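EI: anyone free to look at a 253-residue chain?
SC: sure, send it
EI:
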Amino acid sequence: MTETTPTPEAPANEETQVNEAAEATEAADAAHAGEAPETTEAGAVAASTLSPAEVASQLKALFPALFTGMQKPLKLRIQADIQQRAPGRFTKAQLSAFLRRHTGSTGYLIALGKATHRYDLDGQPGDELLEEHRLAAREELKRRRGVQQEREALENQQRNNRAQLLRDFQRTTLTEANFCVLKGLTLEELPGILEIARKEAAERPPEMEQRPREPRPDQRRQPQRREGGGRPGANPSTGPTSAPKAGRRNASR
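SC: here you go
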């Protein structure tokens, strides 16, 4: 059987893309199918019922240095190593399903974009990580961020549209039938949309009450001045008056 490699121009998405680590492990399994240890019928049935999450839990217990803590880029052909170290524990299909999910996770891609080496089952660094694999991980993360931003923008727009629809419905004097015609809805759609809008309005945090701001110390009220300047009590034409000094002698004496 001839192994085919997808061309770089082929479109990829989160559901169909098989990342580089899973591809390598599956290719290694195909090349060494005759060398893989056989499982008993009972063991194969038990392993076939394991979900990827259950496989992950068992791998953490078996190889904590690699599968616990911060995620690490996996050594190529890691699936063959697992089968050798834990013979009969997992089927090839179950490991392949786990590896596709594990190596396609955002956390793994972040680790892949920053690391310099791959790691074996004992958590020890091995082969150097190729730059093309780092770049592929960063590009995928960038694509996912763009998809997430578009999704959030769409959800916000839809939420705003529902809020506006609820406000218009509460103010309208039209019948429900005419209101639906105006908004391009059917009578069957309106109740459900209004119910969602009411729930979203109830969950929306209340707007902060606008309270008057306290004046700053340099903006506190200053004493009023009379027209023409001077302090209160001063004569603007002659200036401030002053009481005669005590004990002042009469100049005529």
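EI: Residues 20 and 46 are 29 Å apart (CA to CA).
SC: 👍
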